């Protein structure tokens, strides 16, 4: 049995005619032997995935954590005995599986990616992408049927195209007139039945479920604050979508958070006292028309109300419908609350995680000043719980429950605020963004560990592992992969990574920070 | 409409007197039979931080808590009073002032007899949003008796001065002008009087309707 090896890789996800390929270069260990390998789950680029290193028959589990560069956070290589593996194998399940004894729970008709196969025992290890992220487990080969790859790829490509077109439209009309906006609104409405919910998941959902995303059908509930605008009320995944490897935080949100940090921390009752309703809707209109409000015009309470409105008007709450029950149950758990909270947060879509981290970081600062502003974490919890979480089928009859019975939400949000540093250890407080190196240490960022461990144990003859998946990753090697100023990373025609020193006009194979790693 | 006898000028009567009166009637009511007792459901609405919870506590418990705490969801307290020689149980619902709850719909407010719209006289914003609270919350405004309560009169020096003269012309239709007044949940100014008056108005109105 080979040992598991942990290593930090660089990866660039590239799109090539609808296929996603990922380019890995082993810069850390061996000075860069580039490997081109297809991603097992190549849809989003920000999901955890598994890839096969072609030369070595080694599996590579990875997790993208940086939207912009899609650099690799943590990589684990597990050697397996299976050699007859084709990564791109997509199969359809013909019998609904319950997920007992290490089996992959999936409905009939779900498409899965086969990662490894054991033909002797008639089993395979497969993965599928769900709302909660990647789910993996064993399946009987007899429960699977092959699907025509070409057909599926075509479907996939088409859905990509649709979303890219919508994005392009948006970019072209930066400051549209009212008619254009209306037209665009119609366009969006037309597009939404086929791409509802979180953009990142949508196309894959379609692919996987074979249904047009019924899961995301918007509820005509009274919770819905406003009709969908170009910013407010849009699914957050769509709003922050640039490409499958890139996301952006809406500019206005960054500005609002900066402003509140700069001016609001000493304000008594910040976030509790509501601002002028008229001013808030004015700002909302400006932002929905892609403008920037002149912030000086409005007082701090109004701006804080705008922030609350943004979260409140999301079609799906930031903490998602799927995880609502799990989050509610969490508060009753006294013993392993923090660990479970970390796990649950890791299950949120990455975009939601980043937004949550950004918000909680601000709220934590507010609560630190509670001597002055009177907003303790409990108060903030009360104020923010109804804007961050609500159950799916909340109609008029259960609004009573919401208003009288929901004591849990506030407690939960207060807990998040108090434990912010433990929940998001990689979050850079000063820069208000993820520190890419630190986040490697987050246990929760590496859900891929689970399936990998299983494939490892499988080669020991213990095929079906009924114990709950545990994550035992060797401590990742944490290294500063950022480029020093004046340096640039590039790839030569043979695919090898090299580094350019712009100042001295030199190139080299070694990473410019390589000398600091050894010390 | 209106309740002539119980509403004279805005009383400057000291709070202790009113409290005694209330205590007396409450103990008196408790000993009486329940048969004739009327139930009045009163809901307090208004922006966050204007003092709805404090008002309710001042009225029912004669207490003012200095702690600064937002209300979760909603809460209610009851108080037995005597209005025009009729025993009445006041059920006062205190609601969360978060904007999120503005759109909750009528389910929660079903069965309410009276709606007290609370604002902070030091904050014009809270006064402006009274209208939106009224409209968002109540689908059939004619079923309700509306009363305006301007809270925090005790804060004199930092007041933006929203005078009652200015408030009067601004009062929207459907609000019981006679029973709307300025109160202070902190030192109890006019609180008991305001609630008694509100109850009387509602009862009179109900009688007229039926």
UniProtKB/TrEMBL annotation, chain A:
Top-rank lineage group of the source organism: Eukaryota
Listed PROSITE patterns: RHOGAP, RPEL, WW_DOMAIN_1, WW_DOMAIN_2
Alphabetical list of CDD domains matching this protein: RhoGAP, WW
SUPFAM superfamilies for this protein: GTPase activation domain, GAP (SSF48350), WW domain (SSF51045)
MF (Gene Ontology): GTPase activator activity
Domain WW: 481-514
UniProt name for this protein: Rho GTPase activating protein
Protein source organism: Planoprotostelium fungivorum
TrEMBL record, chain B:
Keyword terms of this UniProt record: GTP-binding, Nucleotide-binding
Cited InterPro entries: P-loop_NTPase, Small_GTP-bd, Small_GTPase
Gene3D superfamilies, alphabetized: P-loop containing nucleotide triphosphate hydrolases (3.40.50.300)
An annotated Gene Ontology molecular function: GTPase activity
Family statement: Belongs to the small GTPase superfamily. Rab family.
UniProt-recorded name of the protein: Uncharacterized protein
Species this protein is from: Planoprotostelium fungivorum
